[in-house]
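B., you asked whether I could sanity-check this one before it goes into the benchmark set. Here's the sequence:
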Amino acid sequence: LQGPLPLEVMSSPAATPSKDWPASEVDLEAAATPPPPPPRRRCWGRCCLAAFCLAAVLALAIGGSLALCSTSSLAECKLCRGLNYLLLPSGEPASNLPHDASTRILNGVAFPSALTVGDEELWFSGGGDRYEYGLVKVYTAASYLSRDYFHECDPAEAPFSEIVASGDAKMMVLHMHYPASIDEVAESINKHLAPRLPQATAATTLRHLSGALTSNKIAQGGLHPGDEIFLSCEAGTMSVAFGAADDASKKALSEPGLCKAFWGIYLSKSPVFDAVKEGMARGFPERAAALCGVEAEALSGGWAQDLAASAAALPQSAAWSAAALEHEAEVLEHTVEEDLSSLAAKLRGGGPGGEA
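And here's what the prediction gave me:
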């Protein structure tokens, strides 16, 4: 070996001179190997304590935020409404309608299968959800169309262009999930309507629509989960109602291009919200087939009723015929008897030489 030994070797017990010196190379290599590190202690206790403390801090922060948001001065701020929506149950009933053939369930919300507006019956034709920032569900939109839109029993697709442009009766029902003021709803609708309206009359149309929305007494107290807005169109006139399709306080707006622009938000080639159009792409053919089935059943039922009525009338007709024949026979017999009696009287008194 050349040079001094390493410090570790010099300080190790194996490097102490002994009677067997010089040491072998195996002994020197073993002496130079560092001892294994001590086993690491697991921190289960400390980790659990840290996790518990973090959860407690988060719970206190959330509870404090909700408590602050419950005050009247902060209850209407957007951040507080978002926290309430995400962290607290909304208390919205699933539906106040029975779940039977007269209703349709759309994303957990029950809508009537048909609505009557004036003298027009409108049929549920599908819809979808409107989300804000992809997280908060603002409302569920359900479309209703008159029978005039259903030309075929098995349409390949919904006639979106016809629905947007046609003046036939149609309606969109907005079922609210997120609490909002009516001013916010009007502002949101106007923002999407503005680029679709005729430029010359856009400002006036938006002002009149905002007035129709915000002047309603039901909506002035704010919209809450479960509230519904009914926006119907017919012959270019839009009607705005809250709570019921035929509510007495509904407002009518005959603004040029308003109905076409409103339905274009949902059903144009580039809709603002895809979900409603996608839902109608499925719901429209289903409704068309259902309407054809109902009409075919009614038609066949009418035939069956006519045949049953005819069959039931046959015995009565036969009885009437027999009675009529019997009466005619009696009349004929009486007439013959009278004629014979008259003839006999004439013969007895009219011939020469006495009675004939």
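One thing to flag: Confidence is low (pLDDT under 50) at residues 70-76, 87-99. Otherwise nothing jumped out at me.
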